[in-house]
Design goal:
Layout lengths: L1 E2 L6 E5 L7 H14 L3 E4 L4 H14 L2 E3 L9 E3 L13 E5 L22 E3 H11 L8 E9 L8 E7 L2 H10 L1 E2 L1 H8 L8 E6 L29 E5 L4 E5 L4 H4 L2 H17 L2 E3 L1 E7 L5 E7 L6 H5 L9 E6 L3 E5 L5 E4 L4 E5 L9 H6 L5 E3 L2 E3 L4 E2 L14 E2 L27 E5 L16 E2 L2 E5 L9 E3 L3 H9 L2 E3 L11 E3 L12 H10 L9 E5 L19 H11 L6 E4 L2 E4 L15 H4 L4 H19 L5 H16 L1
Parallel strand pairs: 2-3, 3-8, 5-21, 6-7, 6-12, 9-11, 11-13, 16-27, 27-31
Antiparallel strand pairs: 1-2, 4-5, 8-9, 8-10, 12-13, 14-18, 15-16, 15-17, 18-19, 19-26, 20-25, 21-25, 22-23, 22-24, 28-31, 29-30, 32-33
Helix pairs in contact: 2-4, 10-15, 14-15
Length: 644
């Protein structure tokens, strides 16, 4: 039984509420009063609790177990068709002043703001007051204590999430470290108020009479949500996140993009570290030399595949620390160290196969929650690109939309292709299930970063790989990233969009200040990582990929190793940075052969257009907030191109 401080409210509850310190108790009581849940459940993170949570979902029809014997403790979920991806247009940063979030250029009349959507705290509070009252009527409020990063690490942060979704509880158990041990860590801290407050609701009361206090609509009875009124609010000054109306992924698993990127980037700026949309990988060459690499790519651009790559080159080895988010901080010896604040993978399923990522295909057979994939009569799952030998003609496939006899080639009356799995369908799997996870993935000190890599989907212009000329030039390259769009966000219409640092949807504060923060990290005595840019999505005249990618990307890592070791013989100067010589990047043994001249070409005319697009973007979005050193890099690029 849980009771409010003054004992005027009591609710049926499960868990040891005596572990909640005064600040956590105040946070809980605040939202109990507003949301009106029927009962409380303080999560302990145990296996037994997880099985009970999954059983609750199974009984409600939200989730179904995979009965195929090849899958152990795996489940499949189908969401409402209107709740399938991040909603960038409904995700806002709320501060007292707009300039804290939106740079000067984007604040000018008539300019479309592309980086960081802002709303005042007062205005957002007003919107939430319209949505939150009695939103959990008849439902259970779960209290999830969680740690982003290894428990007790000086690089980690604690959060407390309230939610009325058992799917969120089960998924947060995979993606973070949860349980009452987190409360004990918080209670022993010097500052017991230092945690991020995370409040989430699907926005759908459970009780029949709750319709009178809520206008929410439910299109899929087993997946409650309020898609027409979704709002995801970040209050960095309060260190608080409030998410209403969506049960999907990054909208509801508040430890993920909301905390680990948007709020953490704000905290990192204050404390002198970085929260980035980056994978972390350990690479070892045949001589036994080990390097750690952090790499930033937009969502659905191959981060997970790279982080778990099986190198095609003999003697090379890759191990995964994380595939999505990195927190980076310089240690007392001047080395940049990184932790993966997450504890699991939330990977895009379509396109994942034994060819593209055999390690992921192996790990998802255990303790995995699949979302919006297809389900088969064999008791397993299916998605596009999974296995070309899969006998779809003789297997009953139930699509993610519930079509009971899905077949390849099915189309709507309007001619739209009907897919088996949603393009943004996901697998949610613990890091510990990955057979190539780095033994140091849980190290409280983090791992030392030797190189940072930026990349995206570009069919032309950007060569296969090149190296920055300096730290400031590398920061400029991150600011200049553009990439073809993917299905990871539901409300994006651009084909090729600017996505600086692969952080466009995730900036927690003014982009100009963000760039200045990156630049300020270069200090005497620090060993600055080298910065590279890659593009293995180059295409030819027939729209074919010019580079084989996947395991062959080890050849690019080999070149990066050579550059880190100071090998000048494998590189040549170019207007955009240092590119490989044709012989410097091993490719002669590839079959079929590749055209290295095209892959490494720096086309002056295309790059002059690229420079114009970068300049228009930075001047338009940043205006007076653009750091002078970034403008100098832009001017330097143009000068080198015109004199080349």
């Amino acid at each position: 039984m849980w009771k409010s401080k003054k004992n005027e409210i009591s609710l049926e509850g499960e868990g040891d509420f005596s572990l909640l310190n005064d600040t956590v108790s105040d946070f809980l009581e605040q939202y109990v009063r507003i949301c009106g849940p029927a009962r409380l459940h303080l999560c302990d993170g145990s296996d037994d609790e997880n099985q009970k949570i999954c059983e609750v979902m199974r009984e409600s029809g939200m989730i179904r177990p995979l009965t195929n014997k090849e899958y152990k403790n795996c489940w499949a979920v189908r969401t409402d068709p209107s709740d399938v991806a991040r909603l960038e247009s409904k995700t806002l940063i709320c501060t007292p002043e707009q300039k804290q979030v939106v740079a000067e250029g984007a604040r000018r009349p008539g300019t479309q703001n592309m980086l960081g959507k802002w709303m005042s705290e007062e205005q957002m509070d007003s919107h939430m007051k319209e949505r939150l009252p009695k939103c959990m009527n008849g439902r259970t409020m779960y209290i999830i204590p969680f740690s982003m990063g290894p428990v007790g690490s000086p690089l980690s942060k604690i959060g407390i999430q309230l939610t009325d979704s058992p799917y969120v509880v089960a998924s947060m158990r995979v993606m973070t470290r949860i349980g009452t041990s987190i409360l004990k860590t918080l209670n022993s801290a010097v500052d017991q108020t230092s945690f991020v407050r995370c409040m989430h609701t699907v926005g759908r009361p459970d009780a029949a009479d709750a319709v009178q206090v809520q206008k929410a609509t439910m299109r899929l009875p087993t997946w409650p949500c309020d898609p027409d009124r979704v709002l995801i609010a970040h209050y960095p000054n309060r260190r608080e996140i409030v998410s209403y109306g969506s049960g999907y992924g990054g909208n509801s698993l508040l430890g993920k993009k909301c905390f680990a990127l948007r709020i953490a980037s704000w905290i990192g700026k204050q404390e002198g570290w970085l929260a980035e949309h980056m994978l972390i990988m350990r690479v070892r060459n045949p001589e036994g030399e080990v390097r750690y690499v952090a790499a930033a790519f937009p969502s659905a651009c191959g981060k997970t595949n790279l982080a778990m790559m099986e190198p095609a080159l003999p003697g090379w080895d890759v191990q995964c620390v994380g595939d999505d988010i990195a927190w980076l901080k310089f240690d007392d010896e001047g080395r940049l160290r990184a932790i993966n604040p997450e504890n699991g993978f939330f990977g895009v399923a379509p396109g994942t196969s034994m060819k593209t990522n055999p390690n992921a295909m192996e790990m998802v057979h255990r303790n995995t929650i699949f979302t919006n994939v297809a389900f088969t009569e064999r008791g397993d799952v299916y998605w596009e690109g999974m296995d070309p030998s899969y006998d779809l003609n003789n297997t009953k496939v139930i699509s993610w939309r519930g079509i009971p006899y899905w077949k390849q080639g099915m189309r709507t009356l309007d001619g739209e292709k009907i897919t088996a799995a949603h393009p943004n369908s996901r697998f949610c799997t613990p890091l510990s299930e990955c057979k190539v996870v780095d033994p140091l993935y849980n190290s409280p000190e983090g791992v030392p970063i030797d190189a940072i890599v930026f990349g995206g989907r570009r069919p032309d212009t950007i060569p296969l790989v090149f190296e920055s000329l300096s730290w400031a030039h590398g920061v400029f390259l991150g600011s200049a990233m553009r990439s073809e769009t993917t299905k990871a966000a539901a409300d994006v219409t651009e084909r090729l969009r600017h996505d600086p640092f692969a952080m466009r949807p995730f900036f927690g504060y003014n982009f100009g200040e963000y760039l200045q923060h990156w630049l300020s990290l270069e200090k005497p005595g620090r060993k600055m990582p080298s910065i590279f840019h890659v593009n293995w999505f180059l295409r030819g005249e027939q729209n074919e990929f010019l580079w084989p990618g996947f395991g062959e990307n080890a050849r690019i890592l080999e070149w990066i190793f050579k550059r880190l070791n100071g090998d000048a013989s494998v590189a040549r100067a170019s207007p955009i940075g240092t590119v490989p010589t044709n012989a410097g990047l091993r490719s002669s043994d590839l079959s079929p052969p590749v055209d290295m001249d095209r892959l490494l070409n720096v086309d002056r005319d295309l790059w002059l257009k690229e420079e114009e697009a970068i300049r228009a973007f930075l001047e338009g979005q940043l205006g007076d907030d653009c750091p002078a050193r970034i403008t100098e890099q832009l001017d330097g690029l143009k000068e080198r191109l015109t004199s080349h």
